[in-house]
Amino acid sequence: MIESFTFTFESYGARVRLSSNERSTLDGLVAVARVSLLGRVTEVDGGEPDIVFELNRLDNGDIMLVQDGTELGASDSELKAYRFFDSILRVSVGEHAPGLVFLHAGAVGWKGKSIIMPAESFQGKSTLVTELVRAGCEYYSDDFAVLDENAYLRPFPRKISRRTEDFKTYELSIDDIGGKTGTAAIEPGVVLLTAFQEDAEFAPIFETPGTGVLKLIPFTLSIRKQPDFAMGVLHKLSSRAIIISSLRGSAERFARTLLDFVDKNVN
After folding, report:
1. Which range of residues forms the domain containing residue 66?
2. CA nearest neighbour of 90 among 14, 204, 203, 188
3. Do 151 and 90 have their domain in common?
4. Which of 114, 119, 101, 115 is nearest to 220 (CA)?
5. Cα–Cα distance between 38 and 172 in angstroms, integer?
6. How many C-beta atoms surround the C-beta of residue 118 within 10 A?
């Protein structure tokens, strides 16, 4: 019988069980989870988990990642397996976290109000967040905008993940760019739906609350697992925030333009 090592924890209210057929691999999973979830990992005993991850060493030496009984893929590199687990873990916790809605978005605070910028990966949200923090905003996240039941933004301040021109990744801390991290929950301000286009001029289109909700759904992690709660929070966000759509040019130039817009339009 193959021995299995396990570790069960709660993070943001979601319960996760990790297991492996190697103690060292399990220890690596736990270490990744602690960093990925900003230290919010509390070991628990008993109870059914919401999410189960297995990372097992195969006979050929590869490592197989399994989530809830489904094989996600094998790798001959332990580092690659941990990186894959890192990204999948955050999304899975975001899907299950009770009382919270995780949006795939960059997020900052400006004068006590949130600025949330939903976007898929490789759309420049980390670059824009970096420039907004350099311009004086408080950093909340470059990965997920975490909203409570009142659509207030809460911090998820991972290190900012940036990419070089040849798509290699590196990380920046807020100290690296001379910024500040937000610590308090802040009320809705602006939701910006944007994409980069070289030399684009900022020409904001004001979305209605109903249209805003529809446009936010694709970025909402918990929409499948907690649809009623997620939709309620999206409605609150869309009714309390200004929701705009516009292309933008370079993040460095656009950051100040966006903050001027917020100053003029958000009370």
Report:
1. 5-96
2. 14
3. no
4. 101
5. 15
6. 21
The reply to whether 76 and 181 lie within a common domain is no
Instruction: Tell me the backbone φ, ψ of residue 3, rounded to 5 degrees.
Output: -75, 145
How many structural domains does the chain have? Answer: 2
Distance separating alpha carbons of residues 158 and 36, to the nearest angstrom: 8
- The torsion angles phi and psi of 49, rounded to 5 degrees, stand at -75, 155
Q: Identify the CA nearest to 222 among candidates 92, 75, 49.
A: 92
3-state secondary structure of 15: strand
**pTM over the 0.85 mark:** yes
* Same domain flag for 244 and 164: yes
Burial (CB < 10 A; 0-12, 13-18, 19+), residue 258, is buried
Instruction: Give the type of residue at 82.
Output: Y
Condensed to tens digits (0 to 9), the pLDDT of residues 46-59 reads: 789 999 999 999 99
What are 69-109's pLDDT values in tens digits?
A: 999 999 999 999 999 999 999 999 999 999 999 999 999 99
With beta carbons less than 8 A apart as the criterion, state whether 142 and 131 touch: no
Residue 179 DSSP SS3: coil
